[in-house]
Design a protein that fits this description.
The chain is an alpha+beta fold. The chain has helices spanning 2-7, 62-67, 85-99, 108-115, 153-165, 172-178; strands spanning 15-17, 20-22, 25-28, 31-43, 46-55, 72-78, 127-133, 137-142, 145-150. It is globular and about 40 Å long.
């Protein structure tokens, strides 16, 4: 009986976080990914976006996720009209600075290409998926439409995922629930 139970695919639970209904699984570029967890990014007591993490399997630590050369995605659901292209760009650049320990120069061209994903107007209700696909790079989606790819390899992926999951994340109260803990 135990063997049969282990052979059944695990069905991830949908969850609602910050008023956003998150599916238990998503498919990105042919890769099935399971919701690991999600949290609300806030600033000055205002909820800004729901950040959710989708993985191909469980990992032991945030560092293992950041370093893994496997498909995965971070989804950002914008829940505030306070987010626009300018402040999303500013916050993301700060995240890159933190994720790289201030040494952005080796990946600056990739960062510049990545930042173009946020050039168009951003409004409440928009959804971004930032997916890593081995051999292809970081693939960006806005409202389920593919908007760009940055082939910066695994080192660039580490910087991107380090924004939310690194030692100096965008917000610890988002990182912890994305990893499946309490936020």
């Amino acid at each position: 009986v135990l063997l049969c139970a282990l052979m059944l695919p695990a069905q991830a639970e949908e969850m609602t976080v910050g008023g956003v209904e998150l599916p238990g699984t998503i498919n990105v570029e042919g890769n099935d990914l399971t919701l690991n967890g999600a949290g609300v990014r806030s600033k000055w007591f205002m909820s800004l976006y729901v950040g959710s993490l989708y993985l191909p399997q469980a990992f032991d630590s945030a560092q293992a996720i950041v370093e893994a050369d496997q498909p995965m995605a971070i989804q950002l659901d914008i829940i505030s009209g306070m987010i626009n292209s300018e402040n999303m760009t500013e916050a993301t650049m700060e995240g890159f600075n933190n994720a790289t320990g201030g040494n952005m120069e080796p990946i600056q061209d990739d960062i510049d290409a990545f930042m173009s994903l946020f050039e168009e107007e951003i409004k409440e209700g928009d959804q971004f998926k930032i997916a890593y696909v081995p051999g292809e790079g970081i693939v960006g989606y806005k409202n389920d439409e593919r908007i760009g790819t940055v082939d910066g390899g695994l080192e660039f992926k580490k910087a991107v995922f380090g924004i939310w999951l690194g030692k100096e994340p965008a917000q610890e109260s988002v990182k912890t629930p994305m990893l499946g803990g309490e936020g």
